[in-house]
Amino acid sequence: MHTRIAHAIAGILILSSLFLGIKVNENWFWLTGFVGVNLLQNAFTNWCLMYVILHKLGIKDDGESCTR
Question: pTM for the whole thing?
Fold first, then answer.
């Protein structure tokens, strides 16, 4: 469940910051870059701050991954 929630949050943040960057202020694009860097870092280290936050919120990790 962690993976699905983390991907959903990343997608929401990316799409929101792109919209805000176009409509409000281009500084919102920094949020898009931050999310992208975190996704890249996760690919190499397999550590994700969002997983830590979700675990502390009590959301169980059911071992689900992107591949089945």
Answer: 0.81
Q: What is the pLDDT along the chain (68 residues), one digit of tens a residue?
A: 788 999 999 999 999 999 999 999 999 999 999 999 999 999 999 898 888 999 999 988 877 655 54
The type of residue at 42 is N
The contacts of residue 3 (CB under 8 Å, 6+ apart) are: 64, 65, 66
Domain ranges in the chain are 2-56
